[in-house]
Specification:
With 370 residues, the chain is α/β, with parallel strands linked by helices. The protein has helices spanning 12-19, 23-37, 81-93, 112-126, 140-148, 162-168, 174-186, 203-215, 244-257, 274-282, 302-312, 350-369; strands at 42-52, 98-103, 130-134, 153-155, 190-192, 195-197, 222-227, 262-265, 285-290, 315-316. It has a single domain, classed as TIM Barrel (Alpha-Beta Barrel), CATH 3.20.20.70. The chain is globular and about 55 Å long. The structure holds S-adenosylmethionine, 6-(5-methyl-2-OXO-imidazolidin-4-yl)-hexanoic acid (DTB) and iron/sulfur cluster (SF4).
């Protein structure tokens, strides 16, 4: 792992001060930091695919894949090896250095589905692409198995500050997220961890999330910054679209606080103009999620993304430019691991309960119509 040890110990106050600077001062500083540690004309592209969609047991207030809300997401079974191989080949041909596979799971279970995911990881690894997974919480041994299959990165977002987390999710605690990141690190994989803005959190919450990320040692190799995609039927459906200025501030502040990390401009790009996105690149974002869809919501067309990069003279990053290709470990035997008990916090979130009840009503209505 080449990531530098943390160089500066930040405080929330310092991060808030940075976030609130006059915008052009903030962007100038962020761009200067970016140029010191990164090639400003290079962009990393991760193609995102949903390998298991919908039907999730969690109550994340932002998520259309939570089974308890009434959204128009259809629940699908795991994608096959062939489907993923085709997706990987296409992604590579279209300039992606990484394929990120997402599953709507609370946590990984030691079952046939997990064995299948390990095969998917091997398949993508064989295509010489960086492989990333986001599968929910993982134990130390599960992380090791993923690493042995050739996984390059694990995406597991903190989403917001510890304080605000309790207002959006009641089915797991912040400490579970941190524990998973620790397990991933122990298995020597790179970490992709960031969050969402626009859920009703304060600037202090955003900055506290960055503080926590900056305190991970080593810091995450990539930090996705998502703008909430407010999906009908979720408790956050009424949230207003994040203004581009807020996105630029969040990207720039992330750039300054985590100077070595790759900042990924993630969900919400369909609500941004091209100029807005380029402003984010100027402020230190140097990566995007590509794909016809994110997991379930729309994303800009890949050919439009590529045309934009060409127009502004940005080149795509090749796989393994930043870290070596992980070696696959074959034929290893693993000891029986005790089942990990992830937390089940006792608190309830009024809005989430209300939307769960609304979904029940809608389902009953539909059943009665049949
Ligand atoms: N189930 C796994 C988990 O929660 O870790 C992996 C998939 S989950 C959909 C991955 C991330 O997508 C979440 O942590 C969240 O940051 C982001 N996300 C989900 N729904 C979103 C939305 N509506 N808008 C923006 N980001 C979203
Ligand atoms: C991340 O931070 N953003 C991506 C990826 N990691 C897995 C997911 C965004 C999901 C947006 C909502 C959806 O499409 O369902
Ligand atoms: Fe499930 Fe992940 Fe969506 Fe939460 S964010 S409901 S854990 S898929």
């Amino acid at each position: 792992m080449n990531m530098k040890q943390n160089e500066k110990v930040w405080t929330t106050e310092e991060i808030i001060e940075i976030y609130n600077r006059p915008l052009l001062d903030l962007v100038f500083e962020a761009a200067s930091v970016h140029r010191k540690y990164h090639d400003p004309n290079k962009i990393q592209v991760s193609t995102l695919i949903s390998i298991k969609t919908g039907g999730c047991s969690e109550d994340c207030a932002y998520c259309p894949q939570a089974a308890r809300y009434f959204t128009d997401v259809e629940t699908n079974e795991l994608l096959s090896v062939k489907q993923v191989e085709v997706a990987a080949k296409r992604a590579k041909m279209l300039g992606s250095s990484r394929l990120c596979m997402g599953a709507a799971w609370r946590s990984v279970k030691d079952n046939a589905d997990f064995d299948h995911v390990l095969d998917l990881v091997k398949t993508v690894h064989d295509q010489d692409l960086e492989v990333c997974c986001t599968l929910g919480m993982v134990s130390e041994q599960q992380a090791q198995k993923l690493a042995d299959a050739g996984l390059y990165a694990y995406n597991h977002n903190l989403d917001s500050s510890e304080e605000f987390y309790k207002e959006i999710i009641s089915t797991r605690g912040y400490e579970d997220r941190l524990k998973t990141l620790e397990n991933v690190r122990k298995a020597n994989m790179t970490i992709c961890s960031g969050g969402i803005i626009g859920m009703g959190e304060s600037v202090e919450d955003r900055c506290n999330m960055l503080l926590t990320l900056s305190q991970l040692n080593p810091q995450p190799e990539s930090v996705p910054i998502n703008a909430l995609v407010a999906v009908e039927g979720t408790p956050l459906e009424e949230q207003e679209t994040v203004e581009i200025w807020e996105m630029i501030r969040m990207v720039a502040t992330t750039r300054i606080v985590l100077p070595h990390t790759t900042v990924r401009l993630s969900a919400g790009r369909t609500n941004m103009t091209k100029e807005g996105q380029v402003f984010c690149f100027m402020a230190g974002a140097s990566s995007i999620f590509a794909g016809d869809k994110l997991l379930t919501t729309p994303n800009p067309d890949i050919f439009e993304d590529l045309a934009l990069f060409e127009k502004i003279g940005m080149n795509v990053q090749q796989p393994y430019e930043k870290h070596a290709k992980p070696e696959r470990v074959e034929g290893k035997t693993y000891e029986n691991e005790e089942t990990v008990k992830w937390s089940r916090p006792a608190h309830k979130i009024e809005a989430n309960e209300k939307y769960k009840a609304l979904a029940k009503e809608k389902r009953t209505e539909l059943k009665n119509q049949d």
